[in-house]
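Closing statement on the adenosine monophosphate sub-project.
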Amino acid sequence: MTPPHDPVKKTRVRIVKANLYNLFRERFPESLTDAFIEIPGGDYLSYGDLERESARYATFLTGLGLKPGDRVAVQIEKSPQALFLYLGCLRAGLIYLPLNPAYRRAEMEYYLDDAEPGAVICRSSDLDGMHELARTRALQHIYSLDANGQGSLTEACQPIDGKYNTCEVAPDDIAVLIYTSGTTGRPKGAMLTHANLYTNALALHQAWGWRAGDVLLHALPLFHVHGLFVACHCVLLNGTKMILLPKFDVATIISSLPKATVFMGVPTFYTRLLADPAFGRETCRHMRLFTSGSAPLLVQTFDEFRARTGLEILERYGMTETGMNTSNPLEGPRRPGTVGTPLPGVSVRIVDEREAEVQADTVGQLQVKGDNVFKGYWRLPEKTAEEFTADGYFRTGDLARKDNDGYVSIVGRAKDLIISGGLNIYPKEIESYLDKIDGVLESAVIGVPHPDFGEAVIAIIVRKPEGTSLTEDGVIAALKNLIAGFKVPKQVFFVPGLPRNTMGKVQKNLLRDRYADLSS
Ligand code: MCA
Ligand code: AMP
C-alpha cells in the first residue's frame, strides 16, 4: 500500500520541475521537427535542434569543470545559438550572465571582477582582448561564438552528442544574473531565480492569450529581460515559432510582419515604424498583438498607431529586478498613458514618503511584491535589504499613480535614470567617466526629450581654468573609448558653473528645463 504522504517523492517531483528548462520542455510540440526559430531567408531551426544544441553546450560547459551556480558570462551578437547557449546554461544549473556586446574594456573588467565567471563566451574578434583580461584574473575558460553560429565554442561542441539530463535545481536557485546600473554608478547584478522566471513567463503567456499558431517577430536584443525573457519565454511556453531578426530594422520588420502574429518592442520601434509610410494595415493583416515596454509609450504614438493600423498597442511595465509587473488587458480597454493593472500573482502598491499607501489618483512611489521579484543583488546583501520594505515589497524607484479601476500610470522616476531607446543609462556612471577627463572640473548628465530615443543623454560640463581647449568632439571621442556608444552623450555643453541648491546638490531639474528643447 502506498503511504498517504511521501515527502521524498513529492520533493523530487517539485525539484525536477523547478528547472525552467523542464517547464519549457514539457510544452515543446509533439514533433520535435517543428520549427522553433525561423531565420531571415526562410531557413529554420527546430525544437529538436534546440534540445540537441542546448545539450551540447550543457555537456561541454560542465565538462570544463563548471558546477551549478558558476557563472557563464556571455558577450555575443544575437543569434539562434546565443539562445541555445542560454538554455544550455539553464539545463546545467549554471548562472547565465548576458552582457551587451557594446560594452567596452573598462565595463567588461568591472563585470568580470564582480561576477567572477567560470567561463566567458565572446565574439572571435574579442578573444585576444578577453585573454588579456583573463591574465590577471582566475578566469581559465574563454571561447568564441559569432553571429553566424561559428567559433571555438561551436568547434569544441561539435563531437558531443545531443543528450543531456537537465539538472535538478531548487526553485530559488539563481538562473540568470543581469546587471542593472545604479544611482551610485556601479552596476549591480540582479539574481533571478528559476522560480522568478517561470512564474513571470506563465503569467505573461496567460495574460496575452498565447495560442496555437502564434508566431513572434523578434527584433529585440537577447541580453535584456525584454528580448530574452518576455519574448522568448512566451514562445517557448507556447511551443510555436519565432522569426529571429539579428536586430531592429524598419524595412525587415515591414517585410516580415505579414508572417507573424505577435510583436514586442520598445517605443522607439513604434515611432520608427510609424515614420515609414509603407507601414500600415496591410503590413499588420495577420497581427493580433503588439506590446510595448521598457520605456514610456507616448499617447501620441498609441493614437497614431491605432489610426494607421486599426490596432492598439498593449503597454506593460517591468524591471530587470522584477520581470513584468503590470499589463494592459488583452480583452478590455487598453488605456494609453497607463501600464495597465497588476499581472496575476503580483501585488503593486503606491506609497508616500512614510510608506503609507496613497489614495487613488495620487502620485507616490511604486512598490511590488510577488514570486516574480528577484532574490537580491549579487554579493550585496545590505543594498538588497535597503531596497525591500519590512513586509517584503521591493522599492522600484518609479513614481506612479493608480486610478479607481486599478490602472497604473508611471509618471516619473525617483531614481536618477535616463532611458534611451529602451536602454538604461545612469547619469552617475557617465559623470564618473567625464570627471576623469583632463580639463573637466565637474559635470552633470541629464536626459532630454528626443524624437527617436524618447530621451537622449546630454552632458553639461564645467571646465578647469587650464581646460579651456576641451571641446565637445574631444569629450565625445574620449568617452567612446571608454564606454558603450549608447551611453555617450549626444551633445555636450560647457557652462561656467552648475546650479546647486543650498545643500550643494546639483539641481538637475533646472538643467532639464533649460535644455529640454534641444533635440526636438
Ligand atoms: C544605439 N545607439 C543608441 C541606442 N542604440 N543611442 C542611444 N540610445 C540607444 N538605445 C547608438 C549607437 O551607440 C550608435 O552610435 C548608433 O546609435 C547606431 O547604433 P545601432 O546599433 O545601429 O543603433 P540602432 O540599431 O538604431 O539601435 C537603436 C535601437 C536599439 C533599435 C532602439 O537601441 C534597441 O534595440 N533598443 C532596445 C533595447 C531593449 O531591448 N531594452 C529592454 C531592456 P555611435 O555610432 O555613435 O556609436 S529590459 C527593460 O528595460 C525592462 C526590464 C523592461 O521593462 O523591458
Ligand atoms: P531596467 O533597469 O532595464 O530593468 O528598466 C526598468 C525601468 O524601465 C523601470 O523601473 C521603469 O522606470 C522603466 N519602464 C519599463 N517599462 C516602462 C513603461 N511601460 N513605462 C514607463 N517606464 C517603464
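The first strand starts at residue 35 and ends at 38. With this model delivered, the sub-project is considered complete and its resources will be redirected to Aim 3.
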